[in-house]
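Hypothesis: this fold can be encoded by more than one sequence.
Test: take the structure tokens below, design a sequence, compare later.
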């Protein structure tokens, strides 16, 4: 068995968005597990559900939301550190935000995986 790596908690801060962040998980098929697909920003749960469904849940049988503030993140490397060219998972997460639920949300990406 390999050496166990030590993980440190990553502070998320306000994630550069004034609105609460919501982590989005979807299940595409009843026989598949839930999968984290990204995050959305919304003032309230209903707005977050609407955005998540529009962005990530078109063909999903289940969409789960979790307030990002309630998620503890742990990693073996520091956020923003260069670890052999791999983009940290938090940078691959897509974040959507909008200031009005009637406006189509925009999707921002901090980095793309090659």
């Amino acid at each position: 068995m390999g050496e166990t790596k030590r993980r440190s908690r990553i502070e998320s801060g306000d994630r550069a968005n004034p609105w609460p962040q919501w982590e989005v998980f979807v299940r595409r098929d009843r026989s598949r597990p839930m999968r984290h697909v990204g995050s959305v920003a919304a003032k309230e749960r209903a707005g977050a559900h609407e955005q998540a469904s529009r962005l990530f849940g078109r063909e999903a049988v289940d969409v789960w939301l979790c307030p990002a503030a309630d998620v503890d993140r742990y990693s073996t490397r520091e956020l923003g550190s260069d670890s052999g060219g791999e983009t940290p998972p938090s940078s691959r997460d897509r974040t959507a935000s909008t200031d009005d639920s009637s406006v189509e949300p925009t999707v921002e990406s901090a980095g793309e995986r090659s």
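The first strand starts at residue 8 and ends at 10. The beta strands are 8-10, 21-27, 35-41, 62-67, 73-75, 94-97, 106-109.
Hypothesis status: open.
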